[in-house]
Amino acid sequence: MYIGQRIKRKEDLKFITGSGRYIDDIEYPGTLYLYIVRSQISHARIKKIDVSDALKVNGVVGVITGLTIPFENRPNNWPMAKDEILYVGHPIAAILATDRYVASDAADLVQVEYEELPAVIDPEEALKDKVKAVEGKSNVAYKKEYKAGDPEDALSHSDVVLEEKFEISRVYPSPMEPRGLLSVYQEGNLLVYASTQSAHYMRRYLLSAFGNQVKDIRVIQADVGGAFGAKLFPYAEEFITVYSSVKYKRPVKWIALRSEDFRGMYHGRGQIHKVKFGAKRDGTLTAIIDDLIIDLGAASHGTYLADIAATMLPGPYKVRNLRVNVYGVYTNKTPLDQYRGAGRPEAAFVYERIMDIISDELKLDPIEVRKRNLITQLPYLNPFGLKYDSGNYLHLLEKAEKVYRSYEEKARELRSKGRRVGVGLSLYLEQNNFGPWESASVRIKADGKVQVIIGASPHGQGTETGIAQIVADELGVSVDDVEVIWGDTALIGEGFGTYGSRSLTLAGNAALLASRRLKDKILRLAAQFMKSDVQELEYKDGKVVNPKTGQSMSIKEIASRNMASLGGIWAFKEEPGLEATAYFGFDNLTYPYGAHVTLAEVDDSRKVKILDYYAIDDIGTVVNPMLAETQVIGGVIQGFGESVLEEIVYDKDGNLLTGNLFDYAIPTAVEAFNIKWEYLEEGKSDAPLPAKGIGEGATIGTPPALIRALEKAIGKRLTRLPSKLEDLI
Ligand code: MCN
Ligand code: MO
User: Fold this and answer.
1) Residue of 337, 432, 631 to test ligand 1 pocket, by largest number of atoms within 8 Å of CB
2) Cα distance between residue 109 and residue 63, in whole Å
């Protein structure tokens, strides 16, 4: 059995030997390089754009301005600002040149005449709807009320009623590779190389805009240097690049500079929760009323993140009286969309802060407060209709409690020596496997090697290895003989992609079902080749055996017999070919859960140091504990960044103050720390392979645990992400 084993990643060799192929490594003769001229101010009316000087530059082939394409939840001035500039970084013009440096030099010669408009940057200001972020439009792009039970009544019957404002700042997803696209126009067809989380989504988006101008669009996912949720949905620059290659009938390449990526890549998080909540003296949470303001920036496609946060607000707790008033507001900033965790980290920050605050206010132990509120019967229908499927939350919490108590012990000792240390624990609920289904095809080639094609688009997670383990077990072959490929819309009919921690579960189960289907076909073909009745045969360890006669055939023999001359094949009833496709999806989402415990120190220079860190997850069957563990490690470090280092900051006029990696701090090897991880397999999903996802969990569990530890270290309540230096006095 490979499932459950720490198999080394199959995908790494090419990257560690330098033979990865990212978009910018792919070269086509005759390529034009595209450079985007971006707005330097946050809100203005465009009066005139003069490109005549730019067009005179030797090597410049064309300049595009005023391109607008109607697209769902995007402003009228999309993908380019035609008459109104909405944020710093908004594309205004695109220079196409035979050399990328010529293109960027020519960009300086584009003259934009504009009339500045007042900008609204602060989301609470935006909610007042006085200064408009988009001319002629209300700032309130989205309003929704989620209500369950009777929260007002429950508050009036509570022993304590508390109020708090939690702020979760915007972050930049910071993949190592910025975005980019290469669009190749060939005889009426488009071949698009993308740094994306889903080749199929990209094709569908591009077809909606360019489908009537080209015969077909094929999208290939190049190697992707990280995405973290931010490379799933379409971007202005991608549409501008494709438009240009159709217009000039040439390959066009666009690669973002890091500083452009800070302004162009959708920011994540950006939520404010103004919360009123009540509790009984014993720590029972009675009700939550939450005004949730999501800072959408200049487009409204990020509203679903508030919906996820709102419906997940009860977390793993029994509270049934809630009201969440969601306000999605436009601001003159880069549009907002998903970042690893997507709505669940925001919810967890709020419900875990609430648990800790209740324990402080009522002088109760934080674990006891959690236990008092914990859901103990699963499946459970949460007050907003989400069905938590499986698991034993209490068991996991009890395991985490042991770690917590031992960290407390250490903390007491260190505190007695005058050190500012604290311990934090978080319990969190994850929700994953979004998207209707995923596809997989499994083939056996003539040499007996197995090829798996999946509709998901992994980009660093290690899914190739995980899925190879599943298929190798099912077919009884060596994991080294299983190759997993993906990321090309010409490879498999339809698919979705890699997001919402779904790939192992959905594509993995599709691959499992396809392997089972393929085994039936192998048996039928073998029956013919072995001149046996199919009922007499058994599939075992990559072989078909006839227990009665002792006769057997390996998959390799069957696969090569399958290739025999036409007569040899058509003489049989079964058609040739060893290939099967299957699809897998859930009726309900799955709900993994976990707990994080940390011992942290704030030193005299207010620097945060993690002295110990422990995470426990229950994701049902773990296919490869090493892959899952590395996802947790990466996620904890990202969560650390979000908790103490990373923040997108704009000044009051909408200038981005943290627009490069000098001003925007992400954790590096220097800040990294040791993380211990353990897993339970009690909460199985109802899939044939009863797994759930792990790709995002750690970004949900880390901030509330860490902020609690810091709060205990300094003895002052912390309510925002990240905690800033001035908070840590
Ligand atoms: N796994 C496992 N057993 C399970 C579940 C998962 O062994 N029960 C393994 C899988 O084989 C895979 C990894 O854990 O190697 C993650 O699988 P899964 O939870 O299915 O998540 P996805 O593959 O769908 O990845 C998406 C997830 C998301 S949504 C974001 S955002 C994120 C993340 O993955 N972005 C990442 N981790 C990232 N890691 C890297 N390196 N780069 C990103 O951009
Ligand atoms: Mo994601």
Assistant:
1) 631
2) 11
Q: What are the residues facing 189 on neighbouring strands?
A: 186, 216
The ligand 1 atom nearest the CA atom of 694: 19
Closest CA to 641 of 291, 233, 264, 228: 228
| Residues having C-beta closer than 5 Å to ion ligand 2 | 229, 499
What's the gap in Å between 174 CA and the centre of ligand 2?
Answer: 13
**Is 632 within the bounds of a domain?**
yes
Q: Do 425 and 445 sit in the same domain of this protein?
A: no
Which atom in ligand 1 lies closest to the alpha carbon of residue 224?
44
Give residue-wise pLDDT tens across range 612-656: 999 999 999 999 999 999 999 999 999 999 999 999 999 999 999
CATH number at residue 235: 3.90.1170.50
Q: Are residues 423 and 448 in the same domain?
A: no
What is the spatial distance between Cα 497 and Cα 493, in angstroms, rounded to a whole number? Answer: 13
Residues 6+ apart with CB under 8 A from 481: 448, 449, 450, 472
pLDDT tens-digit readout, 680-714 = 999 999 999 999 999 999 999 999 999 999 999 99
Treating both helix axes as pointing N-terminal to C-terminal, what angle do 236-248 and 199-210 enclose, rounded to 10 degrees? 60
pLDDT number for residue 435 = 87
The span from the CA of 164 to the CA of 706, in Å, is 19
End-to-end Cα spacing for the chain: 53
Residue 455 lies in a domain: yes
Where does ligand 1 bind, in terms of residues with CB under 6 Å? 226-229, 340, 458-463, 466, 498-505, 619, 621-624, 627-628, 631, 634, 691-696
Q: Give the ligand 1 atom nearest the CA of 499.
A: 29
Q: Which residues of the chain have pLDDT under 50?
A: none
Cα separation of 682 and 349, whole Å?
A: 25
Strand partners, 596: 426, 615
In this prediction, the answer to ipTM > 0.85 reads: yes
- Length of the chain in terms of residues written: 729
**Residue ranges making up the domain that contains 565:** 438-584
Nearest atom of ligand 1 to the alpha carbon of 502: 24
| Ligand 2 mean position, distance from CA 303 (Å) | 16
Give the Å distance between the CA of 228 and the centre of ligand 2.
5
The verdict on 575 and 623 lying in the same domain is no
Q: For a ligand 1 pocket test, name from 5, 504, 666, 699 the mutation site with the most ligand atoms within 8 angstroms of its C-beta.
A: 504
> Is the backbone of residue 109 left (phi > 0), alpha (psi -120 to 50) or beta?
alpha
Radius of gyration of the chain (CA): 28
Q: Contact at 8 Å (CB) between 246 and 227?
A: no
**Cα 645 to chain centroid, rounded:** 20
pLDDT at residue number 566:
53
Number of domains in the chain: 3
